[in-house]
Design brief:
It is a single chain. The chain is α+β, with helices and mostly antiparallel strands. The protein has a domain at 441-587. It contains 19 helices and 14 strands. The strands form four sheets. Strands 3, 4, 5, 6, 7, 10, 11 and 12 form an eight-stranded mixed β-sheet that branches. Strands 1-2 form a two-stranded antiparallel sheet.
């Protein structure tokens, strides 16, 4: 089963929900015209569907291999990567000063959905490079930017992030890698694990961003610094020169994403890898968070992408798999399973949640553009506060749904879904890592409750609630039973999200443990409610377009029906999370540890 980018829905989400027109009007984005955006989307869809997607299955079966210290990527990966770089795709959202095209992050997120849906094992090299570019661009010296950014932005070199160590996991305060000053550089020693594309054969150099401690650094996160540690040290001509003292010692054997080499990296076996300090000593973790915020949005987009891929395959299978009679017909002949009620329920659930994710993901990406480019800095700061609030929701809610939707995809296939040959199982295996890396989803929920809501007492979330209510009021004059049902559910979602937010804001102060015990249900409620808000916004826009005979009526009617299904079937169970999030703190710690 291949992949076809859902361009119609992507364009709708870009223009009618995320506000592409407002983004394109921001200073510096004047070249992001409608014609240019459409041309980029069309060409990206071709590369994703015809180039990346056909390599996905073979990449999963063959995987990446370590041979004499060199990682050989899956068949076809090096060739498609060259095509990708030659086409300028890597440079899309980056600073033109260093060779980027300066296009909106909103467009980059949309295109990124295509890469990740077509071939997530390949798409990971792009995701890590993007984050490394961001960190150097924000915190590197002028010389570091001039040396590394043009090559990384073009895609000639790729970047990685080296955080995790065997004893540390997500607790970066436990890092032991060392950095000893030696003239104009440092000598880095230590081991890092779970390094995505830490070694590969697709580029001439790999730029590692490494967290390490200097000898006199204090304990904890305040003692962590960030270093650029290239595989080959750039020469005076900017080309790769001497090989640095670092190597991939093994590849992890994983449940999924087999085509993406997950490396154990060793630094300094021969006396110390040359590393260059980024910014100031002791500020490495704050610098890395620049990269991680970007990466968490991208991982959320991966959850959306794998869900879309699983849905397309399940839908195609359901239309061709003939089994059992139609319950709504007296005829005894078996029919395609898409005629059966439970298959339709599963497909509609997949479709509605995917459209909600796409709307919220693109909306968040548009917020990144607004925070970067809005000429009013006070307005930009408020937009950034909203983005900061939404990032953990996008990362965690999207990736949880990516797993659930990929699992539904297997279920639609029945027994055939459990057989590797159909390909449905790969999507589920690939999706499973998403709630884990870039901060587990429990960490995202903790961040949402303990930092983002606590920061302002829930005011940023309550401003979103106010917009939900304003949209519901706007919908009162719109005709049609569908919109009336959606409006009613939107009002209930706003009420539940307000009640939950106020409870969390109060509980964080009064009983932090109780608030954290309910943090995952709160995040789930928030994501589902906000997704419903943006689907309602899309439904209203679709209704207006139908009335004005503007667009494909079949597509527009489907948008309204899907939003109604979400409002009536998906939203109610999520809004019931209000009870569990308030009650969890009373029983989470009720059993002694020995009984667990």
């Amino acid at each position: 089963m291949t992949y076809t980018a859902p361009l119609a829905d992507m364009r709708f989400a870009l223009r009618e929900v995320a506000g592409l027109q407002r983004v394109a009007a921001l200073p510096g984005y004047e070249h992001a015209t409608d014609d240019t955006i459409d041309a980029v989307l069309e060409e990206a869809a071709k590369l994703a569907g015809n180039g990346l997607a056909p390599l996905n299955r073979e990449g999963d079966k063959v995987g990446a291999k370590l041979e004499n210290g060199v990682v050989r990527t899956a068949p076809g990966f090096a060739g498609i990567y060259k095509e990708f770089v030659d086409g300028g795709w890597n440079s899309l959202p980056f600073d033109p000063e260093f060779g980027g095209q300066g296009m909106p992050w909103l467009l980059a997120a949309t295109v990124q959905e295509m890469w990740q849906a077509a071939n997530m094992g390949f798409g990971l090299v792009l995701l890590l490079n993007q984050g490394a570019i961001d960190a150097i661009h924000h915190h590197g010296s002028p010389q570091q930017k001039a040396t590394y950014l043009p090559k990384m932005i073009s895609g000639e070199w790729t970047g990685t992030m080296n955080l995790t160590e065997p004893q540390a996991g997500s607790d970066l305060a436990q890092l032991k890698s060392r950095a000893v000053k030696a003239g104009d550089h440092y000598r880095i020693t230590g081991q890092k694990i779970f390094i995505t594309y830490g070694e590969h054969d697709m580029t001439e150099n790999i730029v590692h961003l490494v967290l390490a401690r200097t000898p006199d650094a204090p304990a904890g996160v305040r003692g962590i610094s960030l270093f650029i540690v290239p595989k080959f040290l750039p020469g005076a001509d900017g080309k790769p020169g001497q090989r640095n003292d670092l190597r991939c010692v093994s590849l992890e054997h994983k449940l999924g994403i087999h085509a993406s080499p997950t490396c154990v990296m060793s630094f300094g076996d021969g006396g110390g890898a040359v590393g260059y300090l980024v910014g100031e000593e002791g500020r490495g973790l704050s610098y890395m968070f620049t990269m991680m915020n970007n990466a968490r949005l991208s991982v959320g987009i991966q959850g959306l992408a794998i869900a879309e891929r699983a849905y397309q395959q399940a839908s195609a299978f359901a239309k061709t798999r003939v089994q059992s009679k139609d319950d709504g017909s007296p005829q005894p002949e078996p029919v395609a399973i898409i005629r059966h009620a439970d298959i339709r329920r599963m497909l509609m659930t997949m479709r509605a949640q995917i459209e909600a994710m796409r709307a919220l993901g693109y909306y968040t990406a548009a917020g990144i553009d607004g925070a970067l480019k809005h000429p009013d800095r006070d307005a930009a700061r408020k937009i950034q506060d909203r983005v900061d609030l939404l990032i953990p929701i996008v990362k965690a809610w999207f990736t949880d749904l990516g797993n659930e939707i990929a699992s539904l995809g297997v279920q639609v296939h029945g027994g055939m879904g459990f057989i590797e040959e159909t390909g449905a199982a790969q999507h589920l295996r690939d999706a499973r890592i998403l709630p884990i890396y870039e901060g587990t989803n429990g960490i995202q929920a903790r961040d949402l409750v303990g930092r983002k809501v606590a920061k302002d007492g829930g005011e940023t979330m309550l401003s979103l609630v106010a917009e939900m209510r304003a949209l519901a009021k706007e919908m009162t004059t719109a005709p049609g039973d569908d919109l009336a049902s959606i409006r009613s559910s939107l009002g209930a979602a706003a009420d539940a999200l307000e009640d939950a937010t106020r409870w969390v804001a109060q509980s964080v102060k009064a009983d932090l443990v109780a608030a954290l015990a309910g943090s995952v249900p709160f995040l789930r409620l928030a994501g589902t409610a906000l997704g419903g808000w943006l689907l309602a916004k899309g439904a209203l826009a679709a209704q207006s377009k139908l009335a004005g005979r503007d667009g494909d009526p079949t597509f527009l009617e489907a948008k309204i029906v899907t939003a109604r299904f979400y409002a009536e079937v998906v939203l109610p169970p999520a809004l019931a999370q209000l009870g569990p999030l308030q009650a969890a703190g009373r029983t989470v710690f009720a059993l002694p540890e020995a009984l667990l």
